[in-house]
Design brief:
The structure holds four protein chains of four kinds.
Chain A lengths: L1 H25 L23 E3 L15 H5 L5 E7 L6 E9 L8 H5 L5 E3 L14 E3 H5 L11 H15 L2 H18 L1
Antiparallel strand pairs in A: 1-4, 2-3, 3-5
Chain B lengths: L3 H15 L22 E4 L2 H4 L3 E5 L4 H10 L2 E11 L4 E10 L6 E9 L4 E3 L8 H12 L2 E3 L25
Chain D lengths: L1 H35 L15 H10 L11 H17 L18 H9 L1 H12 L3 H32 L4 H7 L18 H15 L11 H4 L9 H26 L13 H19 L7 H29 L1
Helix pairs in contact in D: 1-2, 1-10, 2-10, 3-5, 3-10, 5-6, 6-8, 6-12, 8-10, 8-12, 10-11
Chain lengths: 189, 171, 372, 327
């Protein structure tokens, strides 16, 4: 019988303690952050979608279009388009397309990138009802007012022209090389 | 820990007893680097390298007695894995046993079945947990666990008529 | 168990709990044959979020499989990262720098606290109390902020790498973690006062859903379920990996075998995780966080490898069969919830519906991890 | 004629009072829940989210009424109305002030209980009519819950009737003097167990109004949404409103029976404001309890009823009878 009353008293006590705690919480300040009106500061390491890094020296990206990011991507969401231009060393990036709908933000591309040309952005306010809005051209994002033309190295240009002329002498070879190059470019696009 | 000692001593004995029909088992067989398939028997593997202490290969008809024996030793069936060895035209069923009662002991029991007739006895009357694992292995690889109470589709849709983990599966 | 439930003469009906149901925490479906409010048979049906991670493991290179590890158990993703990293390191024989090991443990334990917090909150919400979930969410947000400042993501972490971690932790993280623990410690007694001591909750959990240690063994149940049944087994202690042997912590074990015991194991594990983190922060050495010689194109030797870690819900282990190429030949993921929930059918027989759902909640299932 | 005008005026008054309460109790509950949970609650619609009930109401009303295929159509349609009607009707008998009673019945208490138990029936109708197994389970639960709780509730009410010798609610209030120790809660001279009796009645009214921790009929963790799983739009809205109407009724009844209705605790300015103050305090307690405790099980509920509440109320009844006989 005493157990019966003890049970009631401990039970009621536990209920009262619970009420006390919620009451205390009632008078403390809410911790809610009213999101659209105010927002938290993103940490520098936040992984948004990837972006091309602007090199402060050249004022443009560092991408050499090696395609390592494309190869390393688990979901195949990166497409790098590049072409060979006269008088420019290496390949020239024409478009860097990220399909963010399939990106899993793992960071393999960033890690694989030797020249450190890509990095995670801090953008988190992405919302849209259209799928196409998430297919970014990162090159365009980096230079919204138009992509600057790569500088032409006159010496290299001269060398290349010379080479071409030398190649002209062997027309068969040249034709084959050109064809190969074209088909490759087509594949990329 | 008391259960640990007999286990170590008993396991080779068990395998020898079971392997009699198969010819002389070779405990401590060399780690096979060569092409010929591994012979039945027990290998003491290096835990730090492989993640298991004992590695036993047995005939498919011995998995039940192996499970019974390991159950008697108080071991747990951790998972059942099926592997499709398409080159050898075989399926391998790997049973991972572990001991949760004290000192660590992990035993791998493996059995190979013919790929054309993949029948292997179920152990789910011994380990209830094997039920789901075997069902999954059946579903994804098509290894038929004879005597399993409920070989129905589980993770895949009910009308799936393919075995996605087989190496010759084309989506 | 009622005699009614056993009687064959009674009329029964089928009830589908799920795939969309508040108590199943996701898309688990339980087909229940009921006799009034008593359960005659409850059969979990899986596969509503099955993504075939094991096949992905066969198609993707070792490095490309990383993001999958964040999407199995999205609540304790770092433990899964840990398992995969250690598995491949074991296969390749890569040595991990000391500092990276400590960072791994710190983040994994923070992740464990976070997971248990949500588990606690969601469990109480299953039982009808909404407020503790919000308090737990408050604490959890702080952990997520901390982890975000290191890993860059809030939920599906892809932070570990073979041979170390993606990036080093900074002083802000260390002070932030210390401050969090200082703030979090007194919260746990508050939870106990508000929730655990509550007579209504005790009435609901004590003696509900008994699972004997032997049943756990037969079904391969691990983690808090096993420890709530009086078995002192924790991979961190019994099969130590990382720097866990050097750290000082206890394994909470309860012998009551009921839902309350499992709940208490989780609550006590949070305290122990705090201890581990503080301990690890004190011992944190200087040095690099990545091993120096990790090949870009990984090709582990032939053979099969196994690794197990203690995730928030139990033993998560992976077995991989490598054929020496840059993808694995077979990747097997053993998720703890899969085994834990497989005993539901046997253990829930003859229970009341409300007890069965309290029992299911005490198993703390995470469905994406179950279905893989 | 005068009487008719008076009644009409009261009807309008009740409608206004009820409408305001039903709308804003929802707001109070959400705001309270928010602050209990370190959140802010509704905030965006209007200042302090005060226009939120309007927005909710508009949304509910603009929704299409869908009748599930399996539903028993007439029952499905009439259940929300059936649950609303008695709760509105009951306001007729509540004495808000000494002279502010829509209609003084000399059997007000009986009418209260008679109509209050209709709620259980309409929940069962809704649960059955929905043609959903969850709803059906919820319906049966709600009925057995009501049956279990009406016994201790009635026994405690009989206490009051014994003490006052009247079933008229206004008379019950009038007899509780204008000082706090004269209220029925503290009438220790009539029975030393009166505070316990109040507690029993309070718990019973929690159960009667299907509030947490006794919301077995709609426990969302198990039965999705219980008896109103299949209801959408205004059908659901009516169920929600009926819950708050029942809340107001339950708290009013507790106030009348135990807390001295419109009487002032210190004998100053008795009137409806005191009544409202006490009633809203009780409602606030209901909200507070809802956002603190988890839910009991069905077993726990019956246990509580049969092991604790009914014995206590019976003992109290005996004591009261004894005290009245002896003194």
């Amino acid at each position: 019988m005493s157990g019966y009353f003890k049970e009631i008293i401990t039970g009621l006590k536990s209920l009262a303690i619970g009420l006390q705690i919620t009451n205390k919480e009632f008078f403390t300040k809410p911790i809610t952050l009213q999101y659209p009106h105010e927002s938290v500061k993103m940490t520098p390491r936040y992984r948004g979608h990837i972006e091309l890094v602007k090199d402060p020296q050249t004022g443009t990206h560092r991408c050499i279009a090696c395609g390592m990011c494309e190869k390393g991507c688990p979901t195949g969401c990166i497409t790098v388009q590049a072409e060979k231009r006269e008088g420019v060393k290496g390949k020239v990036l024409t478009a860097y397309i990220l399909n963010f709908t399939t990106c899993s933000l793992c960071g393999q591309c960033v890690e694989n990138c030797k020249p450190e040309a890509i990095n995670f952005s801090n953008e988190y306010n992405l919302a849209s009802t259209r799928r196409e809005d998430y297919i970014f051209n990162l090159l365009q994002k980096l230079h919204p007012e138009g992509v600057p033309e790569p500088e032409i190295d006159p010496e290299l240009l001269k060398k290349e022209r010379e080479k071409k002329e030398a190649a002209k002498k062997e027309p068969a070879k040249k034709a084959a090389a050109k064809e190969g190059g074209e088909s490759k470019a087509e594949e990329k696009s | 820990m008391p259960a640990e000692q007999p286990q170590e001593a008993a396991a080779p004995v068990e395998v020898q007893a079971e392997g009699e029909g198969e010819g002389k088992p070779k405990p401590k067989a060399k780690k096979e680097e060569d092409a010929p398939p591994r012979k039945n028997g027990l290998i003491e593997t290096e835990y730090a390298k492989r993640g298991a202490h004992l590695d036993v290969q047995i005939n498919p008809d011995q998995v039940v007695s192996a499970a019974e024996f390991l159950d008697g030793e108080g071991m747990t069936l951790e998972m059942v894995t099926g592997v499709d060895w398409i080159k050898e035209n075989q399926f391998e069923v790997i049973y991972d046993y572990s001991y949760t009662g004290g000192q660590l002991l992990r035993v791998v029991v493996r059995a190979r079945v013919d790929r054309n007739k993949p029948d292997i006895a179920t152990v789910c009357h011994i380990f209830g947990g094997a039920n789901w694992h075997e069902r999954e292995t059946w579903e994804l690889l098509g290894i038929n666990f004879v005597g399993h109470p409920q070989l129905e589709h589980f993770l895949l849709p009910e009308d799936a008529d393919f075995f996605p983990l087989r190496k010759d599966f084309k989506p | 168990m009622s005699s009614l439930a056993q009687s064959q003469l009674r009329e029964t009906f089928e009830l589908n709990i799920g795939p969309q149901h508040p108590a199943t925490h996701g898309v688990l479906r339980i087909k229940v044959v009921m006799d009034g409010e008593y359960i005659v048979r409850a059969e979990p049906i899986l596969g509503y979020i099955h993504r075939m991670h094991e096949k992905m493991g066969e198609n993707r290179t070792w490095n490309q499989f990383w993001p999958n590890m964040g999407r199995l158990d999205y609540l304790s993703a770092i433990a899964y990262n840990h398992c995969y990293a250690c598995l491949v390191e074991r296969a390749m024989g890569i040595e991990v720098p000391e500092r990276a090991e400590y960072i791994r443990v710190i983040t994994a334990e923070l992740n464990r606290i976070q997971s248990h917090l949500l588990g606690f909150g969601a469990y109480i919400m299953d039982l009808g109390g909404f407020t503790p979930l919000m308090y737990a969410m408050d604490e959890r947000e702080q952990i997520l902020d901390l982890l975000e400042s290191v890993t860059g993501s809030r939920l599906t972490y892809c932070y570990f790498r073979f041979g170390g971690v993606y990036n080093d932790i900074d002083d802000d993280f260390i002070t932030g973690t210390r401050a969090f623990i200082k703030r979090f410690r007194p919260q746990i007694p508050m939870y106990h006062k508000l929730v655990t001591g509550n007579v209504i909750l005790m009435d609901r959990l004590n003696g509900v859903g008994p699972i004997s240690a032997d049943l756990c063994r037969k079904y391969g149940a691990t983690g808090p379920v096993l420890r709530g049944s009086g078995v002192n087994f924790d991979v961190r202690r019994n099969e130590p990996y990382g720097v866990y042997p050097e750290l000082d912590f206890d394994i909470p074990v309860y012998h009551e075998c009921d839902s309350m015991a499992r709940y208490m194991v989780r609550m006590d594990e949070m305290v122990q995780s705090c201890r581990i983190i503080e301990n690890a922060l004190n011992k944190l050495p200087e040095g690099p966080v990545m091993a120096e010689k990790v090949p870009k194109a990984l090709k582990p030797p032939k053979g099969d490898f196994h690794f197990a870690v203690e995730a928030a819900r139990g033993t998560f282990s992976m077995r991989t069969v490598s054929d020496g190429t840059n993808t694995s030949y077979r990747m097997r993921l053993r998720s703890p919830t899969y085994s834990n929930v497989s005993l539901f059918e046997e253990a829930s027989r003859g229970m009341l519906l409300s007890d069965a759902l309290a029992f299911l909640g005490s198993l703390d299932p995470v469905i994406p991890e179950m279905d893989r | 004629m005068n009487e008719l005008i008076r009644l009409l005026a009261y009807m309008l008054g009740i409608a206004a009072f009820l409408g305001l309460n039903l709308a804003y109790l929802g707001w109070v509950e959400r705001k309270g829940a928010g602050h209990f949970q370190r959140r802010t609650g509704p905030k965006e619609v209007g200042p302090y989210g005060l226009l939120q009930p309007l927005a909710d109401g508009l949304k509910l009303m603009s929704k299409q009424l869908v009748v599930p295929t399996n539903a028993d159509r007439p029952l499905y349609m009439c259940a929300p109305i059936l649950i609303m009607v008695p709760s509105v009707l009951l306001f007729v008998a509540i004495p808000f002030g000494e002279h502010l009673v829509p209609r003084e019945f000399n059997f007000g208490l009986i009418m209260m209980f008679a109509f209050a138990s209709m709620a259980g029936l309409s929940i069962l109708i809704g649960g059955w009519g929905s043609g959903n197994k969850y709803s059906l389970i919820a319906g049966t639960r709600a009925v057995s819950q009501n049956v279990a709780y009406e016994i201790p509730m009635l026994i405690t009410a009989i206490n009051i009737v014994l003490i006052t010798g009247s079933l008229d609610l206004n008379e019950i209030v009038r007899q509780q003097g204008s000082y706090i120790w004269n209220w029925n809660v503290f009438r220790l001279d009539k029975s030393i167990l009166m505070p316990v009796s109040f507690l029993v009645f309070f718990i019973c009214s929690l159960a009667e109004t299907n509030r947490t921790p006794f919301d077995l009929g709609e426990c969302e963790g198990e039965l999705v949404a219980g008896y109103h799983t299949e209801y959408g739009g205004m059908g659901f809205g009516l169920f929600m409103m009926a819950e708050y109407a029942n809340l107001v009724i339950g708290c009013s009844l507790t106030t009348v029976l135990f807390l001295g209705g419109w009487q002032c605790p210190f004998g100053l300015f008795p009137g409806p404001h005191w009544f409202l103050l006490k009633m809203y305090f009780l409602i606030w307690c209901f909200v507070w309890i809802r956002w603190t405790y988890p839910r009991t099980t069905f077993w726990g509920l019956l246990n509580l009823s049969w092991k604790y509440l009914i014995p206590f109320s019976l003992v109290n009844l005996l004591l009261t009878a004894l005290f009245i006989k002896v003194f």
